[in-house]
Automatic annotation (TrEMBL):
Membrane-spanning ranges: 12-36, 48-69, 81-104, 110-132, 171-191, 427-451, 463-483, 490-511, 517-535, 555-574, 580-607
GO terms assigned for molecular function: monocarboxylic acid transmembrane transporter activity
Name of the protein: Uncharacterized protein LOC113397423
Originating species: Vanessa tameamea
Pfam family, one: MFS_1
Superkingdom per UniProt: Eukaryota
Keyword set, alphabetical order: Membrane, Transmembrane, Transmembrane helix
UniProt cross-references to InterPro entries, sorted A to Z: MFS, MFS_trans_sf, Proton-linked_MCT
Amino acid sequence: MELNERATGASWRWPLLVAVTVLNICLPSLVLSYGVFWIHLANYEVPLWLGLAAPSIFILIYGLTQCWFREAADSWGGSIGYRVMASIGLGLVMLGLIICAFIPYHIQPFVYGIFGGVGSSLISAQVDAVLFETYDSRLGFIRGLCYTGQAVGQSTFPHILYVLIEKYGYHFSYIVLAGIMLQTLPAIMLLKIDETRKSSYLSRYKELSQTFMVFKNDSMDNFYGTELKLHDLSKKCWNNPSNDNLHRLDESDYDDGSIIETITPPPSPEEKRRNIFGVEILPEIPEESEESEDEQSVTSINNNNKKRLSVAIKRLSTLGDNLDGCIINQLRKDSQCNSDVNDKDYSEVEVTYETIAPVTDIHTEKILNSFSFRCQSAYVNMRRKLWMPSYRIYRIRRRLLYLMYNINDTFVKPLTRSLSCLKFYPALLLSFTKLTLTGIGIVLLPMIGLQLRPRIAVLENNFLMSLHGFTWVCFLMCTPWLAQTPKRNFKYVAVCGLIITTCACFVLAEARNHDSFAIGCVAAGFGYGAVTSCWETAAQDFVGARKWPKIHSTLETLSAILQALLVLGLLVVLRQESGLQFSMLILGVILAVCTFIWSIIAIVSIYKSKVRSFSFKRKRGLT
């Protein structure tokens, strides 16, 4: 099969694979490790909700822009398109980090979230496009490596950020972090698609394209090719197109049973007017005798003489009428009064067929300099500017109209289509759960560790966050097994991950010492790895492969909006004394609801695929 050919014949392209892994280590750590910044930000008497606002804004901007950037990545792509757009995204991320070093504490989370979300979304869209074009038959395994890079970044970046803050201070640590992000630029320069491999392997219609390949005229096997064949000019008649035998077959062709020359239909009447060289062929003129020519010449001369006589009579009659009119309407110039000339209004010149008066230079000057003319011209110009705007305004209107149509096609239509599908809501709940674990659950871990009694040191707290990432990596070691697993089984793994994560959230909400907090971090990391690795494939299999592209963008945008609304609701909870652990309890309740719904889906799927098919086979065997 073509899929097996691509999987076995394609190279791994190790430089690109290393570059994608490096990008997944650095960029997602802006959210996964933001809890370290939050710890030091809380020391400056900044409200806790500001620390939680930064990752939520990051995820919201990322979800709102990802659908646009992913659709535009194909048009941006090319020899340097992916690298240029990814470099622009990296520039936005660095710009946001540098700005955070020079602004007050209360504005830092907003700048951090907006610039980081847009830049990371732009880079992620280019990385996804390159991975799909390069590793289309190994996407499951490649995504597992990307998640492994994120887990490694979560394990290492808390310690890196802690060292930067202790050595350079809170403000200048942003600048050093921007310098660390700049080191991913060589990895971005490797985001390139192999054009030779793309032409040979990435064609999903390779067998169909081989059917329409151009063949030569060398042999009989290539008779049904699409190349235009030459005419046999030995059968061409140069005297008369009607006798052209190019489209006819010889008797020898019928006897041999094979056709060598190209058979063309007879030419149409329009085509008969030109030969093969484009020269027009005149129609045949019938021969006529000398007597008939003499008779026709005599009759034509008589008819011409009659026409000339009638035309002369008509001209004389009109000339007489014109002379009578000129004599009757004749007026002397000296009979006109000078007062009429002085009282004449030169703002308008009356021109008629009977009295034609030339307009002199003085008259024209009086017309153009008159007050009424200037008022009228000013009114016309004003009206033209109001009702006929400039081309710049037209371009602005056209771009606004294009933006409205783009928003309608990107958000409104997929939203109405998705809300009418019942399977969309469980998939939305699963996507929302994954985002809340990323933007709320992981960020709350270091702050919860500081509230334990006895209080855990910052360095040990960072170690527990690294433990969360390490258990995440431990689950991702099952990636080769998951890559070979059918898609219908991913929902079972996702349900197991939801169950483990739900139990971990309740443990963290009730943690009072170091041991319970460590157990909660280990369980949360293992469950988070299962959810992040399997939620998209499970949702795609549940919704259907045909409906998934239509609702994918809606899932991203709505889940990001719901996550931002949940953070707004948690602002009231965070003001309480134990607000952090109570927030974790609320997150556990949401996970419990999602686990219950997807457990029912998994049980129904097992019943349809296993129990019903087994009973059907058993009845069939008994009969």
